[in-house]
Amino acid sequence: MNKEFKKIIWPIAFIALLVILSSFLLYGLARMEGQEITLLKSLYMVAITISTIGYEDMIGTQGSRLLTVVNIALIFIYMIGVAYAVSNFTAFLIEGRLNKFFQLRKLHKRIKRMDKHYIICGAKDIGVYVARELKETKRPFVVIDENPHVLDAIRKEIPDVVAVEGDPTDDNVLLEAGIKKAQALIAALESDKENLYLVVAAKDLNNGIKIASRFNNPATRHKFVNAGASYLVSPNMIGGMRIASELVRPATVSFLDTMLRSKKHDAMRVEEFQVPKNSGFIGRTLLDVHQETGVLAISAKCPGSEDYDYNPDPLMKLAADMVLIFITTPDKRILLEEKLSR
User: Between these two residues, 22 and 210, which has the higher pLDDT value?
Assistant: First the structure.
């Protein structure tokens, strides 16, 4: 249950319980004093006491110090309980907690509907670029970060982003982000220590999940591999390769940058697809794939082989677990995945 919601529910539950107990208490005491009274009249007495209406004294307190003291005590207890409940509810409304509560409920419903999505842990620096690419290629994802200002920044850039505020290394936060149904997790936290702990935590919750992790110190690489990271990326290494590529192959870098950074609806991307074992296209040719989807493979890797066949023969037949590489748009990629998965 949400913490903000608890602040409203508990005082109300306390008052309701107190009403029930008070009704039975007054009923019992009145009967001990020899008064003829029903539980309904006892409940009515409690109701007019709480509401301060005070039509009449349903239970005779004259001559009974015990009943008088109990009534006085109940009045003060109710006053405190009601005041606490009202103050909490007022704060709930004034401080925007009610709106936040409904936003969280909507967020949880969206995450529950997700399946085979990506979880980005850390929305600063590297994480925001990952989110942009997943958004551009129409892949479902959830962002986790414990800094609300970082999440506000990414919400401005991607208004419909699914963002969870919390510590990415916390099991409860990962479960809230739907790690049980996620297909991949990106560990983009700032330190190797945090990312390594995150890899271990994620694998413990979902052993089959693929994890791509950032690492800074080359000496920690083997630790990430042993912990279960599927892919490792060093920002320093990538940055160095980028600088060298800018100098020796500037046109190629410009071509790839234009393709990857395009904001157009039909932006091109280099995509990959592994043919499922139950695909209806097994035994058919790459030409058949092109004719039905408009997508042409630029490379293929047969199962059991480490080598890629560049510019493959259009008459090459598809096999289970074959990896195909394409240059295509996000919409055509989705069409290709749907066709070849049937």
Answer: 210
- The 10 Å Cβ neighbour count of residue 217 is 11
Location of structure tokens 């490792």: 232
Other C-beta atoms within 10 Å of 191: how many?
Answer: 12
Residue type, position 9, single letter:
I
8 Å CB contact between 149 and 276: no
Contact assessment for residue 89 and residue 83, using Cβ atoms and an 8 Å cutoff = no
Furthest C-alpha separation in the chain: 105
For CATH 3.30.70.1450, the residue range(s) in the chain are 264-340
Phi, psi (deg, nearest 5) at residue 214: -80, 145
Q: Which fold, 114-234? A: Rossmann fold (3.40.50)
What stretch(es) of the chain map to CATH 1.10.287? 3-97
Nearest to 185 by CA among 115, 119, 117, 116: 119
Give 41: exposed, middle or buried? Use CB within 10 Å, 0-12, 13-18, 19+: middle
pLDDT tens sequence across 103-145: 788 889 999 999 999 999 999 889 999 999 999 889 999 999 9
Phi, psi (deg, nearest 5) at residue 142: -125, 135
Query: Do 318 and 279 meet the contact criterion of CB atoms below 8 Å apart?
Result: yes
Query: How would CATH label the architecture of 3-97?
Result: Orthogonal Bundle (1.10)
Top CATH class, 264-340:
alpha beta
Q: Residues 23, 49: contact at Cβ < 8 Å?
A: no
Q: Which of 63-67, 294-298, 332-336 has the least mean pLDDT?
A: 63-67
Is the pTM for the entire model greater than 0.70?
no
Using the CB atoms, write b or e for 261-300: b if 16+ within 10 Å: eeeeeeebbebebebeeebebbeeebebbeeebebebebb
